[in-house]
Specification:
Layout: H1 7-17, H2 22-29, H3 33-41, H4 48-57, H5 62-67, E1 79-84, H6 105-118, E2 128-138, H7 139-148, H8 151-162, H9 167-181, E3 184-193, H10 207-213, H11 234-238, E4 240-250, E5 262-268, E6 272-274, E7 277-288, E8 298-299, E9 301-302, H12 305-310, E10 321-329, H13 332-336, H14 353-368, E11 382-390, E12 393-400, H15 403-406, H16 408-418, E13 432-442, E14 450-462, E15 472-476, E16 484-487, E17 498-503, H17 515-524, H18 537-542, H19 548-566, E18 584-586, E19 602-610, E20 616-623, E21 632-640, E22 648-649, E23 651-658, E24 660-663, E25 666-669, E26 675-682, E27 695-702
Parallel strand pairs: 2-11, 15-17, 18-27
Antiparallel strand pairs: 1-7, 2-3, 3-10, 4-5, 4-10, 5-7, 5-9, 6-7, 7-8, 11-12, 13-14, 14-17, 15-16, 19-20, 20-26, 21-22, 21-25, 21-27, 23-26, 24-25
Helix pairs in contact: 1-3, 2-3, 6-14, 8-9
Length: 709
């Protein structure tokens, strides 16, 4: 027999699907029942002439019997099964797990990428590859897709739900209007490769049942997994206005002798009554299970390539992993216009696929830059990309997320650590300092005793503008997903801008003491959003009500270590630059200071360096006397010349660092502040002479042009 599923299990399933007994097949093929039994148990194989008669009996072609890569079409047809309403009249008006998250593609990216990392096949050392495909269907392409998913059977359910005065009803109504009034449907597909796939039986414990059949079932592969609540998968359905997700999985271990093209669909809607029949909520697209009463329950099926293609679920290779197709995807955050997205045409709608594309790229870079970073002999854990299509035509080419673009300083820091290129103290620009900080681990079950001391790894390096806000520390554990991104407290008024990364648990490396125990402890300290470490019910029940204080201790130790590293002599220049200390002057105006009952702030200390490209970066500390926080002052940069008026230099950027902010070009001080720090970068295009040949003067002026210092 040719390669494919073993003949015996395949034939047994075809008989179930066709509702045919072994005796009936024996009569149709003109053999004994014992012969059919021998085929099914693998004790014998049919002769070529018997194979022809088997194909006729199952109403299929010879190729299907020979290859056995799909089921025959003679059995029960693929269709939708809606779970019947509860016998006791109970009603659920929506999936509570889906309400735990916003319909936000950034949240979707965080949760789905985390799940793919958790299911990565680590044995081969290769990264898990995750691809997000936005695909807008219109016109005939939309009509064909609706036909394939049996839309006519689903539409009556949507019509009932859209009339319900609940949140889900309003979301469904918006989805139907988008489809029929704008003639479009947005599909968002999430593919992962080198992952476990949805293995296991349709109903018993396993990955498939945990994702497709159950709620709040977190079936994870290891202790370093990011998820632990079983909520993350709900973001797939929450992102669909229609509550509909289709799935195609290639398994890392066979089920029913097969690995490729295991298909199923799941619909999440509230309780409803359609054509007089009460439906509890969820529905599944699949082949009726002949073992269920009346063969009504739908289970996954092994699809042919044509069906997979028509459902837009064709995978690029036979590598294990899963493809999730979100039908009717939308992004509430884009509609709210909370954040500006670069490189998007002003004429694009807020819910355009281009805007969703760029938000996905940004979210992946922000949350998973560390997982995408490799160094030395260690490959990245993750590769991620986003592409956008309309009716099969490329709208935005595939864009691979680059951690060096998303988080350049932090990526540099982690790469240096992986390559063993860190230092103990920061003495030059571009260096990465690495120290360890302690985490005292509690014992499980309560009590104040300690299990031991874990040593997390702290990395500190200079900040770059592309990183976003400076002077922050990002924390993570084994899967290297960003958990916390917080400001470092207790810094002095002047400090060179930096970024810090804390690697805890197994992220600190196998050599770190108590790494596995720290991983388990910190995992219990994460809420469902996985965005911080703190007191959770899981932490309290597993350890003790006071266990969270160990995390507070880790935070204090981390901040103290950062202060020790960054509060040092100012960093040296980049190659080709020059220290400006001999050429940097605090200006003194020739005009009289405006009299006031309130003493005026004074520019007390300056530090500057030449950046690549010839710009000056200046950090200034201002001393603010009592009542001086009411002043609105403008920092002015000038060339230091021997005679005549000093030429003014324009700022390319000026920002408040500590206890001040820039409003309309002027510094506004925090109420009650006694000192403030600002940072400015000059515009080289406004330099009258070369930076290395000139001096710099910084003055503070009022809005009336008077110089204060």
């Amino acid at each position: 027999m040719e390669a494919g599923e073993d003949f015996g299990p395949w034939l047994a399933r075809q008989l179930k699907l066709a509702d045919m007994t072994q005796t009936e097949l024996a009569q149709a093929v003109d053999v004994t029942r014992a012969a059919v039994s021998a085929w099914i148990t693998g004790r014998a194989t049919p002769r070529p002439e018997a194979i022809e008669r088997i194909a006729q009996a199952l109403n299929t072609d010879l190729a299907t019997v020979h290859t056995r890569t799909t089921d025959t079409q003679a059995g029960l047809p693929v269709g939708w099964y809606h779970r019947p309403g509860h016998a006791d009249g109970g009603r659920e008006l929506g999936n509570a797990a889906a309400f735990a998250f916003d319909a936000d593609v950034s949240v979707l990216a965080r949760e789905t990428c985390q799940n793919s990392l958790d299911e990565r096949l680590a044995v081969n050392g290769q990264p898990v590859r995750v691809r997000y495909t936005l695909h807008e269907l219109t016109g005939e392409d939309l009509a064909r897709f609706r036909e394939v998913i049996q839309w006519d059977d689903l539409y009556p359910h949507y019509e009932v739900v859209r009339e319900q005065k609940q949140k889900v009803g309003r979301v469904v109504d918006a989805g139907l209007r988008d489809m029929y009034e704008r003639d479009r449907l947005v599909l968002l597909r999430v593919d992962d490769y080198n992952a476990a796939g949805l293995t296991g039986d349709d109903y018993d414990d396993g990955r498939f049942a945990a994702v497709v059949r159950r709620q709040l079932d977190s079936h994870k592969s290891g202790s370093s997994a990011g998820g632990s609540y079983g909520l993350g998968k709900a973001t797939l359905w929450a992102t669909s206005r229609l509550g509909l997700v289709l799935i195609n999985s290639t398994l890392s271990e066979p089920h029913e002798g097969r690995t490729e093209r295991r298909l199923v669909g799941r619909l999440d809607l509230p309780w409803r009554r359609v054509n007089g029949e009460a439906c509890a909520g969820p529905a599944w697209l699949g082949r009726p299970d002949p073992d269920s009463p009346g063969a009504r329950v739908a289970r996954s099926w092994w699809a042919d390539e044509e069906t997979v293609e028509s459902l837009h679920l064709t995978r690029e290779s036979g590598e294990p992993g899963t493809s999730f197709l979100i039908v009717g995807a939308h992004d509430v955050a884009s509609l709210a216009g909370e954040t500006a997205v670069p490189d998007v045409d002003e004429g694009e709608d807020d819910d355009s696929i281009q805007r969703m594309h760029h938000r996905l790229v940004r979210a992946l870079g922000k949350n998973f830059w560390a997982a995408m970073t490799g160094g030395g002999d260690r490959l990245p854990l993750l590769e991620a990309s986003v592409r956008t299509l309309r009716n099969g035509v490329v709208v935005v080419p595939e864009e691979r997320v680059d951690p060096t673009v998303a988080q350049p300083s932090r990526t540099r820091a982690l790469k240096a650590y992986l390559e063993g290129a860190t230092v103990e103290q920061l003495t030059e620009t571009g260096q990465v300092a690495a120290v360890t900080v302690p985490l005292s681990l509690p014992v499980q079950g309560g009590g104040r005793s300690s299990l031991g001391e874990h040593r997390a790894v702290l990395l500190v390096t200079d900040a770059e503008d592309a990183d976003g806000k400076p002077n922050r520390v990002v924390t993570m554990r084994g899967n290297r997903m960003t958990v916390r991104d917080t400001a470092v407290l207790g810094l002095p008024s002047i400090v060179n801008p930096f970024q810090a990364v804390l690697l805890a648990g197994t992220a600190a490396g196998s050599q770190a003491p108590f790494a596995a125990e720290a991983e388990e402890f910190l995992r219990a300290a994460e809420p469902p959003e996985h965005n911080k470490w703190g007191q959770t019910e899981e932490l309290t029940l597993t350890y003790s009500p006071s266990a969270y204080r160990r995390i507070n201790g880790l935070t204090r130790e981390t901040n103290a270590a950062i202060r020790t590293l960054v509060v040092r002599p100012k960093k040296g220049p980049k190659q080709g630059g020059g220290r400006l200390a001999p050429k940097l002057t605090i200006g003194s105006g020739k005009k009289k200071r405006r009299p006031s009952a309130v003493s005026m702030p004074v520019l007390e200390e300056l530090d500057a360096q030449v950046l690549e490209g010839g710009a000056w970066q200046v950090i200034g500390e201002i001393r603010i006397p009592p009542g001086g926080d009411e002043w609105r002052l403008v920092p002015v940069a000038k060339f230091d010349v021997r005679s005549g008026p000093r030429p003014t230099i324009e700022w390319a950027e000026i920002v408040g660092v500590d206890d001040c902010q820039v409003v309309d070009g002027a510094l506004r001080f925090a109420e009650g502040a006694r000192s403030a720090t600002f940072r400015g970068v000059t515009d080289p295009a406004t330099h009258a002479v070369r930076t290395s040949l000139s001096g710099l003067v910084i003055e503070l002026r009022t809005g009336e042009g008077e110089s204060l210092s």
